[in-house]
Fold each of these.
Amino acid sequence: MNELRREVLRADLADLARESVPVDLREAVLQGSRRATVRRRVATAVAVTAITALAIGTLAAVLPGRRALPTHPTPTVTASPKVTASPLGYADPTLSAWTEKTGPSFPGTLYLAWLNPGQTTGTYRLDFSVLANGRLRTASLGDLSTDDCVNRSYALSPDGRYLAWIVGDPRGRVGQTLVVQPTDGGPATRYPAHAACSSGYGPYWQPDSRSVFVYDNERGPGTLNITTGAFTPYVAYGSPFSVWSANGAYRAYSDGLEIVVLDRNGQVVRQHAHPAGTGCCGGFSVRGVSNDGRLVGVGPSPSETSGSNWGFMTVFDVATGKDVKLPGPRIQAVEQVVFGPNGRLLLVTMGPNTTLTLYSAAGNQIAAAVFPGGPAVPGVLAYLP
Amino acid sequence: MGEQPLAAPAPPPSLWRERATTAEDFDAFVRARTPALLRSAYLLTGDQYLAQDLVQSALIRTHRAWRRLETQAHAEAYTRRAMYHVQVALWRRRPKESTMDTPPEPRYHAPDEAGAVLNRVLLRNALAKLTSRQRAVLVLRFFEDLSETETAQLLGVQVGTVKSQTSKALARLRVVSPELAQRYFAEVTR
């Protein structure tokens, strides 16, 4: 006997329903309503005319010595074209030249992304920054809207050499392009991949930094080799929407109930239910996996996007099934957890300012970089020690 | 001094205010409720543009009935009813229920994660393989959380039809997506 898990189905339906794009239908509705009124009036007038004509014709026919009036063809009332929202335009930006200034001191190389207000109202600028040796190099993609594919898809290769993003209509209606931009300033390469324009669908860089996983609307999930342009359909075990460890040894995903960790050959090495998958506390998402495949960075699902839980991450031990106590102050809002080599942990915490703190495996603070507070909060794309 | 001719009476201010408020109310209603209506419509149609068309058609009916609707709650109920009725009318116009051959394309979603994306892909593909009638019943019963009786009333069908369509929809989900079957159905030993 099987029993329906109503709550799980309900949560999944709600999650899927959020894919709908909110649009302003007011004008279209008012126009449609006016047209319906006009159509009704025309139809009524036509009906009255037809009945009158019929009556006159009938009268004329029955009256002696009178010829019947010529009858006119009844006009056909055709429906007006349906009003639909016009397709959204989309940005196809090119990366600006890199600028350089003094930045906070931090060991290794940090790759950051920031979303800042653009030059005109309602537009945004996506800044990519590389912090190394106390110098902060920044290049931008401009004139974006918050809905642009670019803003929802940018990803940095594990070796930090390439940025990739998707260009196209946010509604996924038109053919889209995968853009791969070397971070050393070389020319971008464009691949005619009909990649899905939606957060979470990729692109996901593979550990070799030469192939990118994309969810192609025509060919399905697969990896695109940026050297040859060849597309290889995804056939491995488990979800293709996986996050890789920095060393490329493990990948992890959640199926909404459990967290699954696989090795690079696709063999499941660990699997454990997460408390948030029981339906008690909303959904959860896997956002990173440690180099030993044991710890997984867990964030809330989109259904938990309100209240104090928004954006905060925890670290889950897939071996024990328990949350790991994070180093640093007991009460802190951890926005992002990045797993480094040798058990190091990079935490992005929010307060009046955004602080990036690097901890050793023993929980001792190695370094910290503070970025001024404000609307623009940096997200860490990668950390190379 | 002779009596001054009476000027044409100005419309009572309250009337103007009422009309203006009515238009503003409708505007506010559309603005506030369109996203939620679109979510339901998206599940019903599996397509952003069809969902927009469906909501637009329902809102046009609501606009034309606006003066008869006393509160926004009534308006929402009226719009949802109109939406489902348009959908039901579409079923009835079709000679035979057909399922979509090609799953709709993935669309915009807020920043999220891999696992939820996989579930969405699976569910979207599975819903695309249901008939419109089965999808509507699933949406009403498990997304809108309506009872069988309420669902039947809204769709204008018998409760037995709702039961049979729900059963068929769930059975079809299990067939077309074993992964979802595992996720949605728990083994119960009696």
Amino acid sequence: MSTIAPLSLPPSLFESVFPFHFAFDRTLKLTHIGRVLARIYPELSIGADFVAAFRIDSPRSAADFEAIVANQHMLFVVTHPEGRFLLRGQMLYLPDSDHIVFLCSPWVTKLDSLKALGLSLKDFALHDPVVDLMQILQSQNTALADLKRLTTKLAQQKAALKEANQKLGQQFQELEQAQAMTRSILDTAPDGIITINASGIIEVANPMVERLFGYEAGELVGSNINVLMPSPEREHHDDYINHYIRTGERRILGSGREVLGLHKDGSMIPLYLSVGEVTGGDHPRFTGILHDISKPKQAEQALRESEKRYRSVVDNIKEVIFQTDVEGHWTFLNPAWTEITGFDIDASVGHQFLEFVHPDDRERNDALFHSLIARKMQYSRHESRYLTKSGDYRWIEFIARGTLDEDGYIIGTSGTLNDVTERHKAAEAMEVAKEAAETANRAKSAFLANMSHEIRTPMYGVLGMLDLLTEAELAPKYRDYLHTAQRSAKLLLNLIDDILDFSRIEAGALNLEHIKFDLRKTVQDVITLLSEKARHKAIRLSSVIDSTLPYYVCGDPNRLAQVLMNLVGNAIKFTEQGSVKLWVEIEAQTPDWLRVVFIVEDTGIGITPEVQARLFQPFSQADNSTSRRFGGSGLGLMIAKHLVEMMGGGIQFISTPGQGSTFWFNVWFTQTGQAEAAAIPSPGGKSLEEANSLRFRGRVLLVEDNEINQLVSSKLLGRLGLDVDIAVNGQEALSAIEVDQEYDLVFMDCHLPGIDGLEATRLIRQQERHRAVGPVPIIALTASATESDRQACLAAGMDDYLAKPLESNKLIHTLSRWLPRLSEESARHQEKEEESTILSGDAKDTPLIDLNRFEEIRALLGTDFPRMIDIYEELGRGAATEMKVNLGSGNLEAMVNAVHQLKGSSSNLGAKRLHEICRNLENDLRSRKMENLESRIDGIAINHELTCKQLRRLLDQA
Amino acid sequence: MYGMVNKALEDMIISQHGENVWERIKDAAGVDIDIFVSNEGYPDEITYNLIGAAHEILKLPVAEILEAFGTHWVLHTALEGYGDLMEAGGNTFLEFLLNLPNFHSRVKLIFPSLTPPCFVCTDIDNSSLRLHYYSRRNGLSRFVVGLVKGLGMMFSTPVQVELIMSLAAGDDHDVFQIDWVKTESP
């Protein structure tokens, strides 16, 4: 073995290899410091204390020389006392010099630490791995940066991926929805939808296809489409598809057509098929839409049938059915046009309808047509003459309406033409006949009016003269003759009146009065008038009047009396023995109205059923023998029925031949609203005897050319207390009125020589206006008793109307309206007070007669009762007169005596109300209450009269 | 090639032409790599393809691209990413160039799979030297020119670089004559 020379390094070389070394001796004083260490630790100097200059971090040993030597096998880490840097290396003990040398280099973990210490790579020895460590650290940093970049990139990609996923999910969802919608469309489509592939295999068939063809759900998919086709399409369908695929030549692709489908049950289904090619797939596919047209087909068929029916109707109907445009050109005519006019339809359509209308009718037709077009009228119906091919005209009824389009605009007219030529001819004939009938009727009316005048004028003379003759002294035999003559004349007059009434009814000219009248008295008067007749035939005639029946009602007393006269008169006429009874009862009432039923019962010959059926017919009597035996016009019942109906009622009867008949009728009256007591007696209902006691006051001018009439009328008027002047014609009447303006009333005959009554009246009225004097009442006197005469009189200025011959009743009735009666005159000014006085105090509520007392007295007196009534009547009249006389002389005692006597008599007879009135007056007189005495005395007189009448009625009824 | 190089190329293209151009270049180069790992080695053809594609798309000469790339590599990629190491590499342009061979030797040690180029400095004086560049890769001479010029800019030293010998001219390596204006004592 050769000896190896020990290695040693010269100091400069040692310095370049260990630029950071330092050494210290046993005293721990630094003896050597490396070049680079000295640069980065300038405070360090030779001799400095190792322990003070450095801190030993590792190993954990005491900082003394020996301890360091003992640990020199360990890695030493020492640091700058302030931590500026850290040195890592190896402690080596050098025994030769008894020093420790620390071979080290700075330890850095961050690249920027080098820069902080002012070091660069060339400060390190080449062998020093710290430089490599630097590089590795750099690589580590770079890797870290790459990692960060990668992480960022990953995060970005992850986000992008997430976003893409979301989009994808959304697209998937949309796709699913689209598929669901497609499925829903297929499932709910009202048409069949079917898709096949190029081999004709069904890939899709919606439920409608299955329903249409009768297959179960899913049954069709996979089958060849030709199972749904009848032959021959069935056999050729595959060829069709192949042909198309090969050549591109289309048959029904892209268009549609009607086809027949084959139902599973073998039946055929009419379908409308549209086929389209499905694009976008790998292989050709075709989709067909199948629309079931069986219903439209049925509807089409129904429409065709309906049109056929309509056409049949239009072709066969008798009327022309037409349409025009807005200018009036025919646009449609049915065959009836040719039948009616003879013109060809084709030759007529397009022509103006007016060309066919008679020239005289064109203007009106044109106007009506334009009113339709202008929608001024919706409907036009008129008749015109239309030309026929033969050159004649026929009457055509044109009925049309405007024709509107769907938007409501007028596009012409449509309607019918009806041949009414025959109707026209008939109407013309009827018009002629009607005119003839009307002429005849007018002639009849004129004849009737004339006859009434002609007959009535002489009758006026006859009756008037007979009336005057009754005042003459006559032997009983001649008085009988006279009465017979009077009865005959009145009978004749009645007949004439019946005929006149009938003619009025026929003409609808019969009018009713509506006046206040005494119903009880009217009934009683009828009984009274007919009682003589009954007595003559030894028939018992009686009447029973409902005690609650009011005295006064409003209605027509004369017509009511006429009906009663007819029925009661007939009853007497057709009764040979037994009785005739009249019942009057209230049937119904309200505060305003009263319905009264009148029943007439007889024990006469009765009416056979055959006759009953025509009893109310005019000119009808029970039988011909009846008319011969009983006389009469045969109009009475018919007139009565008509009158009753006019009075709001009806008339009926029952009858048994041989046993008798019962007639009844009811009539409506207006209630007067007054108590039952009478205030003003109705003069119209007064008998001639009663009328004799009535007196009027005034001057009357009678204008009358007939001498007999002058005599009769003036006598009658004179007997009623009137002064009468006579003028024989219109001119004289004018002069008389002009000279003497004091007339209270004028009776004017209508038929006068020269100026007639109507003209004279007009002149009188003129004169009065000229002289500004009040009008004198003028009463027409005429034998022409028609309603038109009456109207003519009133129109001329007359105030009232009297039919000739003058009869006392009617005359008094009329005079009452125009002149004051003597007995009333003084009270006229206090009419209202009078009424209230009559009904004053408790008396107005007291019944006229105490029926119990009446029955008592009647039973007591028996047959003497009528005489007692006569005496009571006389007494009352005397008492009233005496009171009036003594009122004038102021003899109070005499007045008290008179009223006292009447009071006592009234009480005896059950005249309860009069008793009370007398008692009140007596008391007042005794206590010298003298107000209204005169009218109160009048009231006593009127009530006395009422009481007497009521007593007699009650006696009759009993 | 070091991933750092490709990444530097990416940075340059994106900073000068935008990301879309870089994507187009990558597509054109057939490169489907989103991230270049700096210390990872990538096939050289990727770098060549990227430079070729850049040439196609940017319509610039390859040499110009390579030189600009070299400059960019120093001033942006290295300085921004390796600033501390670069600064520790030397206090002057010359110091840095002299340290360059050791630097690559150490890289080779640390990343054995990499084949870094080898640099040798000769004919050194205060204002010039010759840089010998040994590389098994061809065509990157102008890249080295750009690198050297970039270093000059880094040290505020005006530099002239001339390729005086090259593989392309048949020499066994590239030699660059580098002259600079001396600004301080080495």
Amino acid sequence: MPTHIVQQGEHLPGIAAQFGFSDHRTLWDHPNNSALKNLRGNPNVLLPGDEVFIPERETRTESASTEQRTRFVASAEALKLRVKLLDLSDDPNDRTGKATTSAGAADVSPQNHIYEIDIQSTDTNVSLKFDSGSPLEVHMAVGSLDPVKSQTGQQERLNNLGYFAGFSKKIDPQQFQWAVEEFQCDRKKQGLVVDGHIDESTANGKKTQKQLEKDHGV
Amino acid sequence: MSSRPNPEEVGQVISLDLGKDGVAASHPVEIDFPRFVAPSLSSDQTHNTIKEFLIVVGCITVPDAHFKFDHSFVVPEAKASMKRLAKMRDALADPDQPANPSDPNSKPTPGAKPPLSLFGHADPVGSDVYNSELSQRRARAIYGMLIRDVSEWEKLFDHPHSKGGDHWGHDETAQMATATGDDPDKTFTGAARKALIAKYMDTVCVRDGPSGEVPFQLDPKEDFLARGAHRDRKGDVQGCGEFNPTFVMSKKRSDAFDAAKDKEGRDDANEVDRRVVGFLFKPGSRIKPEKWPCPTMRDPNPGVTCRGRFWSDGDQRRKADLSFDKKFDTQVRLVPGPGPDDPPVQHTPTFACRFYHGIAQNSPCEGVSKQWVLRILRGPPISGKADRPFDNQRFAVTMGDAPDAPEIHGRTDDQGVIRLPVFDEETTMLLKLDVGDALQPPGVDPPKDQGDAKDFTPFTLLAGDLLPIDVEKPSDADPADLEVKQRLFNLGYGKGEPEEFDDQSTRVAVRAFQRNEKLDKTGVADGPTRKKLAEVYQFIPPEDSTSSPGASGSPGASGSPGTSASPPPASSPGASSTAGAPFRR
């Protein structure tokens, strides 16, 4: 059976839809994907190069009368993009903005400081724009967030949290170290030591990674 | 902050005098890139957190020469720094930024100014403790003058530096009186001293107005990064002591100075480190003092607070180091080399404070970082006509060819110059120019800004592919070498791409260049031709130069697609590429 290699910007619900599955769990819970599931934990955060086993689709029989139009609607999974916006002092941005997806623009207000935007599994670019108060527009690449275990995933989360760690997927060691140390420095109270390590080879690195995932929210 | 700027919102790149007289510069560009996020299923509770970036849009340096030596007193020469600050604030004002961003209903107020934060610095001579206090006092002196707080200067008079040295007294009142036209021999105390301070501040803290100099002052509650929210101005004013030098001596040199009786040489060498830097942040930026890591302006022991934010190897970064001696006599960020004609020395981070590094690392005020320098001319080249720069036009540059490559928006300056940060020394850049008016005959007013960057005319630049040109090399190469062809191509001569110039068209191009530059029309790239070509190619009109002599290392950019890769002439002093006439094809 075919194996799908994950590309940049892909997540499991999107891959499921691409292969005609209405529920990503058909793939995620398949025994052949158990290693992937254990490794990644979250079907929405895969690393380019990950291999997803694509099972055979079950055939379903539906009856329909001739001479009459019958509509079959493929049920696509409802996905959300949930975003918390913080200002320079870590205070949440709580105002009504405009979210633009492939379906168009719609007003969105935060619930418990989180903006929830309905998206399609095919949406890759979403923006959130605020015209009132201080003008702000946030562009987001949906599905491009890598797992926190990968260095690019760490870089992306650090960038999102306001610690500039370098531009997309390119690691500048100096800038990356800057961001990791600044992040650790702001979290000494949580027990982090400022040593620039975020890899799993040290206890402090492991702890830093955990904290980063927690503070980012995924 | 990740907002995508409209090109109109981006301040024009401006930069004023440099050198010992201080620096003022806009941080030239605003960079935009998408945030990478994960979707969530309805059932899970995951989310993404996105925080604004603290963005520096400009800086000014109040140099050592604007203070009394080893003191915090602001001398009359500081007027130059104050004028630059006023000019820079105007230039970087954001027309769409509301005056009160914390109020969601506040309407945009045209011209909101970029908020300021002042950082005092000392040189490494003397103790950490002494230097921390001196740098703090210098920053306070500037701050007090900017907000016209006479009592701040009274405090400086009444409380000398706790370790001696810097004290304000009769010398200071005499200097002020001289500048204000009062009697320098008089003793000023009490109300008379207050009045003198106020008058002196109005004399020094001035800006250029339509009819001459006018005093200006800043509002402590509006014009600083923390909006004066903290009693002791945390976030608005701080002293960094000697922790963030832009210049570090080698051990050898430092030891030699220590042994010398006369310390003047050392003091001169260290001058660049004794400065107050003011950073201007994106209009609307505001921080809460309790989230700011730097000491307050009255922190009795600021060094302790600063150390809390050091790099894990902070002390090594700022110290004279034996390992430097093997490579360089002087270790600097990117200021001129040891001798007047030496190229700038390799960039090495020297800031011990990691937080400061994040703000200042790429600031033109704190040593010069590498830039791509492009000068865009309107083509084609015309004999006997001066360059026609593609001035004050909008551009957008995609740095690299990845789908999510950062995009930079800005505007060319009066000389058609664009300066871009170097992320990669070899990269493909897509430069898009707003040529809306380019085809208009001269004398016709250009149309108002309109349209989107995606409608701009694109040019592919192979940054880092430009071969160095050696003007000393005796060459009568016929046909010309590739480095000659590349430059001719970029300047708008020749047909096709440089590698594909055939012998005949190369000779035609060389001859056309020789004709325009009044050289012998031999069609052969001889010595004088190569020399002239290098000169024309590197030329940036001096009044527009943003860099101190020899301080801008810029890898060359070649506008020629498909040129074979070669290392850029890294750190070549003052190198700037003139991109060719974009409209000849």
